[in-house]
Amino acid sequence: MVKLLVILLLAAVLPAHAAPDLLVEAELERPEVHVHAQAVYRLRFLHATDVRDIQLSGPAVRLADLRRIGEDKISETERDGRRYRMHERKYAVFPFASGTLELAGAHVTGRMPAAGGNLPNAWRPVRVEAPARSLTVLPVDIQADGAPWLPANTLKLTEQWTRVENGVHRRTLRIEATGVEAAQLPELDVKVDGMGVLPGSARLQNHFAGERNVAVREQTFIIMPMKSGLFTVPPLHLRWWDVDTNTGEMTRLPARTLLVSESAAVTEPAAGASLTRAALRHLWVMLAAALGAALLFAGLRSTRVRMAWRLRLACRAGDARGVRDGLLAWTTSALSDPPQTLDALAERLDDAAARDAVRALERSLHDPQPVAWDAGMLSTLVARVKRDIRRTTS
Questions:
Q1: Do residues 52 and 133 both lie within one domain?
Q2: Domain check: are 215 and 320 in the same one?
């Protein structure tokens, strides 16, 4: 009878389900996203007991880029009426293939007091696994006029004009989009009838504002008059996909007119012309040669040539993700059954050094701590892969 009373008293005092000392939560911001659009993965570790040397490890993913968002956040919270100390880490996920993306393998390690230990400093290692999560990746929506696929939360297209000298202008175009990577921003093209246009190299940048990646692409064009008159710079259109409303959008820059006087047009310098005028003529000769090469390239409609050029630009910029995308795109024109991932590409290579380099590139893109690739390393990798592919297909 006494034992029964003790059991009843304990049942009244203790909760029906005692909350655990350690919890790991994994959460996706939304259940589905479009290919190349950003998703947010949140990993939380909650502990109601002392835990030291805490290490959070994010999930392993294939066919997606994973980038850590900011620093870990530490706060206090409650679960089922129990107080916990919470460590939260966030990752940006950028899938590059449609289908189901599995995010598994996230875990937390640390040390906690050993149960029943007699020594005051007795600690035991602990590892807690996070639950797996699945993200549905929607395919590319059909875009009109063959426009590049650009999914984003917001997008701004701006321009800045600077008058250089004697009718020469510098036009800087800037794309700023949230929820997408800079490597996904398309290359812009500027053409003005009656004027020479020389494109400069593009500057790509990624940074986080809150949980969203902000992608920036800036490119400068030198516009040079070849005769006097009134010139119309045509409007610029950029199609993109609003991932919040699931609708196609169009961002525009209006047309602009430029008036070039007879003295400002770039022509043969007269005898006794100023040094500045002669210097401008010399600049024009050099730029015209480069412009001719650029126009010749624009006239080449070969998809393979354009893809190879973009791959070269990605190497020069040290853009590892751009090289990954460029290599996979290049193989579509070089192979009848092209690989869809860098791992699959590595399996096709006979050159051991090229195979190891491609796998190292794949690992670095999935590492939460990005590896810095310089232009020389990327150019060597691309050259090895192309040489191996050409040798095996010849």
A1: yes
A2: no
